[in-house]
């Protein structure tokens, strides 16, 4: 159904009540949206509609506030201009009243403080949930391999902390921790141990993934995916009821733990932004000024996005910059301060919970601080190029896979898809050490430099020279011995190369399935593997050819060697930047995440190179690509409109179409207006002087019109089908025997945005982006000629880009 997407109605009072809450559960793909339930019941007695002499009078909605007027239907766009105007009016009213009494002054102070209180609550709630998710996911991930005899609620690391029998070489082995093979068949070595553990690993993975997809499908369809594309759309002004509701929050929190624990190639960082926004939306219901104003609510959701990244990475400053750079549509200075405060509270809450047991906010903290060499910028740039290529490839491959899922029968079996992908992932991941461990543990190991106590294969270095330069005794600054690769390192290299291919393939098919799935950690894992491989190659090259001029001084005795962990950090940043196209926020998140403040320049070089390469191959980030795939009405501010079209080329009605449906300011009856509403699906109607003189007077919303007419029929005496509808300021002369008129001037927007037929579409698109408009009327010499809606602009832009204009699904 094609609808006018319009909502710029005149507004006189903001004391309305929303007809439906964001807690309603709606499944876009399977449910037909019924807007009739969105109109609230009007069972209160507002006005008897009589004068003192009991003669009927005109029903004026200025005298009485009708519930539902000024609210929005599902899958519609808010009117930013009207919402901001309402907030200014409310502020003026509070300021005026505060001068009259002490009570009003106290109310004014509490109103000003309520925003900071809301930020405090969002930070506390999001931090607590994130800490719980981290602890639960770590425990359930280890549950696939075994159980702790001292208490099943201990994960592997915590179980062995108290053991006195743990050695440095085998620190992961202690008598208190038993693998499933040891518990079930009493086997502690041999092929039986491997087979039973393999079988239990796959079974637990399938169980976790099956529970996750069943819970999402049964209770909260909106809990699947990352959530960031939808949150970007919501922050731009779109309404998706239920997407940030309580059921979505509960199910997403539970299934996120299950999905991460299943071993699928996904992360929890993106979904944590969704979780934080759900917390913010629910808490907004307790604060009147946010509950009743959609624009103010979106300022809170912008701050909640910063909170989500803050608790996901332990990066409060990076979270604020992420919200500003990546997701927010409207980000005033006040929101910046509040985002910073909320991210601070959330990070403090997470630190108090201490989910990682290392007294730090992050899992990837690096201990090395060795300086990097200027010529190393060349391999850092190469990693940036790899990250850009990976980002462009991933976006195209993932969108192609999601489109295949959407347009074929594959999309009809989401449970089967999740189970099959989980089965393949578990079967292929278990034999390889670096895919068997969780992505977070893998990144942590790849980021770290080798120390004296490291028993990892990545740290298997030998002093035996097999190089062409003879015996080399390259001593690093930390006093380690020779850094020539040993057999364990060679084994780790080919295992990492295999893990890189598997991670790439599984990340492409996993992102977009009907389970909560983040993209940050899998992208970072791909980059960290590639970076570590390149770092080890550079290290060995420098050691074996240290006498060459280019490597002289790099790894000579007493000098600092190349640090492979730094290359893993740079590679992770490059790949994440290639997929998301983040720059400033990415670099800040990375140095907050790792504590590697000395490495800002390599991170910046890789992030910018990655963005340039990825943008050369495709302008869209993964989130914008998914927004376009789902047909959300999102006007991307980064996309330039370069075509020389005019407003007359885009407006409706087009040539050959019936004339635009309008209301006249007088002369129409209740029956005629109700028939027009029944015969059309438009969301609003222009009001003109008359059919013969179509001079524009204003614009009225369909929703406001329906509610007002229903209210008039119920509560105004004498209103019948032949009662006239008036949008005029002055009452026209009426016959004493005529039925009473219904005066609706109060719901009329007297200052709708207008352009002329010769206005360039480049300017029209800019107006829509910067003012957040839903519709714009097209006039010539004051005469109404047509209308341009946000959907019309999106269709026109798609047509100009040789895309299907009907891909814009929602109004």
Automatic annotation (TrEMBL):
<dbReference type="GO" id="GO:0005247">
    <property type="term" value="F:voltage-gated chloride channel activity"/>
</dbReference>
<dbReference type="Pfam" id="PF00654">
    <property type="entry name" value="Voltage_CLC"/>
</dbReference>
<feature type="domain" description="CBS">
    <location>
        <begin position="651"/>
        <end position="717"/>
    </location>
</feature>
<dbReference type="GO" id="GO:0005794">
    <property type="term" value="C:Golgi apparatus"/>
</dbReference>
<keyword id="KW-0967">Endosome</keyword>
<dbReference type="InterPro" id="IPR001807">
    <property type="entry name" value="ClC"/>
</dbReference>
<feature type="transmembrane region" description="Helical">
    <location>
        <begin position="415"/>
        <end position="434"/>
    </location>
</feature>
<feature type="transmembrane region" description="Helical">
    <location>
        <begin position="244"/>
        <end position="266"/>
    </location>
</feature>
<keyword id="KW-0812">Transmembrane</keyword>
<dbReference type="GO" id="GO:0008021">
    <property type="term" value="C:synaptic vesicle"/>
</dbReference>
<keyword id="KW-0813">Transport</keyword>
<feature type="transmembrane region" description="Helical">
    <location>
        <begin position="492"/>
        <end position="513"/>
    </location>
</feature>
<feature type="transmembrane region" description="Helical">
    <location>
        <begin position="272"/>
        <end position="288"/>
    </location>
</feature>
<keyword id="KW-0472">Membrane</keyword>
<dbReference type="GO" id="GO:0010008">
    <property type="term" value="C:endosome membrane"/>
</dbReference>
<keyword id="KW-0868">Chloride</keyword>
<keyword id="KW-0129">CBS domain</keyword>
<dbReference type="InterPro" id="IPR046342">
    <property type="entry name" value="CBS_dom_sf"/>
</dbReference>
<comment type="similarity">
    <text>Belongs to the chloride channel (TC 2.A.49) family.</text>
</comment>
<dbReference type="InterPro" id="IPR014743">
    <property type="entry name" value="Cl-channel_core"/>
</dbReference>
<feature type="transmembrane region" description="Helical">
    <location>
        <begin position="374"/>
        <end position="395"/>
    </location>
</feature>
<dbReference type="InterPro" id="IPR000644">
    <property type="entry name" value="CBS_dom"/>
</dbReference>
<feature type="transmembrane region" description="Helical">
    <location>
        <begin position="102"/>
        <end position="124"/>
    </location>
</feature>
<keyword id="KW-1133">Transmembrane helix</keyword>
<dbReference type="Pfam" id="PF00571">
    <property type="entry name" value="CBS"/>
</dbReference>
<keyword id="KW-0406">Ion transport</keyword>
<feature type="transmembrane region" description="Helical">
    <location>
        <begin position="519"/>
        <end position="538"/>
    </location>
</feature>
<dbReference type="GO" id="GO:0005886">
    <property type="term" value="C:plasma membrane"/>
</dbReference>
<feature type="domain" description="CBS">
    <location>
        <begin position="747"/>
        <end position="805"/>
    </location>
</feature>
<dbReference type="GO" id="GO:0005769">
    <property type="term" value="C:early endosome"/>
</dbReference>
<feature type="transmembrane region" description="Helical">
    <location>
        <begin position="198"/>
        <end position="223"/>
    </location>
</feature>
<feature type="transmembrane region" description="Helical">
    <location>
        <begin position="300"/>
        <end position="324"/>
    </location>
</feature>
<protein>
    <recommendedName>
        <fullName>Chloride channel protein</fullName>
    </recommendedName>
</protein>
């Amino acid at each position: 159904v094609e609808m006018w997407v319009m909502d710029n109605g005149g507004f006189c009072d903001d004391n309305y009540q929303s007809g439906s809450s964001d807690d309603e559960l709606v499944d876009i793909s399977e449910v037909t949206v019924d807007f009739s339930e969105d109109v609230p019941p009007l069972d209160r007695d507002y006005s008897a509609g009589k004068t003192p002499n009991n003669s009927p009078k005109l029903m004026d909605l200025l005298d009485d506030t009708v519930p539902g007027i000024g609210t929005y239907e599902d899958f519609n766009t808010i009117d930013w201009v009207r919402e901001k105007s309402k907030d200014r009016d409310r502020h003026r009213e509070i300021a005026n009243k505060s001068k009259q009494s002490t009570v009003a002054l106290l109310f004014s102070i509490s109103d000003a403080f309520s925003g900071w209180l809301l930020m405090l609550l969002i930070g506390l709630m999001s931090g607590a949930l994130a800490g719980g998710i981290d602890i639960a996911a770590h425990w359930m991930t280890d549950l696939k391999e075994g159980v702790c005899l001292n208490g099943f609620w201990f994960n592997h690391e915590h179980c062995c902390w108290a053991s006195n029998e743990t050695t440095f070489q085998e620190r992961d082995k202690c008598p208190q921790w038993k693998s499933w093979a040891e518990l079930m068949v009493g086997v502690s070595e041999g092929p039986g141990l491997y087979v039973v553990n393999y079988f239990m690993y796959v079974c637990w993975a399938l169980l976790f993934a099956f529970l996750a997809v069943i819970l999402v499908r049964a209770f909260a369809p909106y809990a699947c995916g990352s959530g960031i594309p939808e949150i970007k759309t919501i922050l731009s002004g779109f309404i998706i009821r239920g997407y940030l509701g309580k059921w979505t929050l509960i199910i997403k929190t539970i299934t996120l733990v299950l999905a991460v624990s299943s071993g699928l190639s996904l992360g929890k960082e993106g979904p944590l932004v969704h979780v934080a926004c759900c917390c913010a939306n629910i808490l907004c219901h307790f604060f009147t000024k946010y509950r009743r104003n959609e624009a103010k609510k979106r300022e809170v959701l912008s701050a909640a996005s910063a909170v989500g990244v803050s608790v996901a990475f332990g990066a409060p400053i990076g979270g604020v910059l992420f919200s500003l750079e990546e997701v927010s549509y409207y980000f005033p200075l006040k929101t910046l301060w509040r985002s910073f405060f909320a991210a601070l509270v959330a990070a403090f809450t997470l630190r108090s919970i201490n989910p990682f047991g290392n007294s730090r906010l992050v899992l990837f903290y690096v201990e090395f601080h060795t300086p990097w060499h200027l010529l190393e910028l060349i391999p850092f740039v190469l990693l940036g190029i790899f990250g850009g290529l990976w980002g462009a490839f991933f976006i195209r491959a993932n969108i192609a896979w999601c489109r295949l899922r959407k347009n074929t029968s594959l999309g009809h079996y989401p449970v089967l898809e999740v189970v099959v992908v989980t089965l393949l992932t578990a079967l292929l991941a278990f034999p390889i050490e670096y895919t068997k461990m969780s992505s977070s543990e893998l990144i942590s190991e790849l980021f770290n430099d080798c120390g004296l106590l490291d028993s990892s294969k990545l740290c298997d270095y030998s002093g035996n020279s097999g190089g062409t330069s003879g015996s080399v005794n390259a001593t690093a600054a930390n006093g380690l011995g020779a850094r020539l690769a040993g057999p364990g390192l060679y084994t780790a290299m080919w295992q990492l190369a295999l893990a890189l291919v598997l991670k790439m393939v599984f990340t492409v098919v996993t992102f977009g399935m009907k389970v909560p799935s983040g993209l940050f950690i899998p992208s970072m894992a791909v980059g960290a593997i590639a970076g570590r491989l390149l770092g080890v190659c550079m290290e060995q090259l420098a050691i074996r050819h240290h006498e060459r001029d280019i490597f002289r001084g790099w790894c000579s005795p007493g000098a600092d060697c190349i640090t492979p962990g730094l290359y893993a950090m740079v590679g992770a940043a490059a790949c994440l930047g290639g997929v998301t196209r983040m720059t400033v926020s990415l670099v800040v998140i990375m140095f907050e995440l790792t504590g590697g403040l000395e490495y800002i320049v390599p991170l910046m070089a890789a992030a910018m190179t990655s963005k340039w390469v990825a943008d050369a191959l495709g302008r869209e980030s993964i989130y914008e690509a998914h927004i376009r795939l789902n047909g959300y009405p999102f006007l991307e501010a980064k996309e330039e409109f370069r075509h020389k079209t005019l407003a007359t080329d885009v407006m409706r009605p087009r040539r050959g179409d019936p004339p635009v449906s309008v209301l006249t300011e007088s002369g129409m009856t209740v029956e005629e207006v109700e028939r027009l509403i029944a015969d059309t699906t438009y969301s609003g109607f222009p009001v003109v002087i008359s059919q013969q003189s179509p001079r524009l007077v204003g614009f009225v919303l369909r929703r406001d019109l329906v509610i007002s007419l229903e209210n008039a029929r119920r509560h105004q005496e004498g209103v019948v089908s032949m009662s006239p509808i008036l949008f005029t300021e002055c009452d026209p002369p009426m016959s004493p025997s005529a039925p009473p008129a219904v005066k609706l001037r109060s719901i009329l927007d007297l200052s709708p945005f207008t352009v002329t037929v010769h206005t360039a579409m480049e300017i029209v698109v800019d107006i829509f982006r910067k003012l957040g408009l839903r519709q714009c009327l097209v006039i010539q010499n004051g005469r109404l000629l047509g209308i341009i809606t946000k959907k019309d602009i999106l269709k026109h832009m798609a047509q100009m880009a040789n895309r299907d204009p009907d891909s814009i699904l929602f109004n």
